[in-house]
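Chain A, query sequence.
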Amino acid sequence: MNALSAVRRVEVGGGQDHDAGQLFEQWEAGLSDAYVPLAVSPRGGDRFRGWIAHGVYNDVELSTLGASRQRVDRTRSLIARTDEEFLHTSIQIAGHGRLHQDGRVAQVGPGEMVFYDSTRPYHWEFDGDWEMSAVQVPLSRLRQRAGITVPDIPTATTVVPDSPGGVVAGFLRELTELQNTAPEQAAILAGSTVDLLASAIALTAGRPAPGAAAETLTRRQVVEFMRRHCRDTTLGVEAIAAGCGVSRRTLYRVLEEFEEGPATLLRRMRVEYACGLLTARRDLPVTAIARSAGFATERQFYRAFRLETGTTPAAFRETGVLPRTL
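Chain A, predicted structure.
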């Protein structure tokens, strides 16, 4: 398991009246402390606000952050003050931004991802309120794990959601948001971040994903496909393999951590969905919930629910408490 530090939160501005210069100094200090030394300048006279939720998991740093309109610069003089070298990855959640690096400009909107590195100047421009997910890893870790060097990174290149690298963008956004509610789970999942970043970098640059990174990406694609289609009562091994473009053998290999392979994961996903319905829709009979969650029969649902949770659907609906977590 990745080592976990407490998620640190920084918030400036908001509804309180403060001197604008002082607010930007606080915000600049918060950004620089969470990432690398940066310079921030205002864009317009609106009341400023900004916030960061930042966690560290060994050599992976995850954040969600947002603020009012501004410009953020990484200058040569600031680079000279930093010994470490990092890859930065941002996934836009809300609003729009423009990232400038290496003579390119990436227009980044909700759901889109972009790479940039701390060793060369860059700047962000935000013309309105914005939110993003951010991931920071040492460049040395990418070199060691996947042989990726700075020239390999497609900086200031927009990665759209339906591109090969877009699968990784979705995972990283979910991971950064997960640490706000379940940091222990985020610590476990953060272990695959470097491999997934290596895959996204290679695919965005038009190259195949390297070694272990390719397998990590395939696993993520399989899990995402199953999550989207788990409520289909006809979904089985053949359909999952075909939908993901992999063989049965590959499917079982990437899900080898589950005792029964894809069947175990599919059952767990369906039970998790059913748990949400049992408490949110108390007007629905258990039979309807079973069908909605992807179970062919009520009997199949009861067996799966007890196997995964140690209790019955009715008992869980009454108490809202599971004897054991999924």
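The CA atoms of residues 128 and 282 lie 41 Å apart. The first helix runs from residue 20 to 34.
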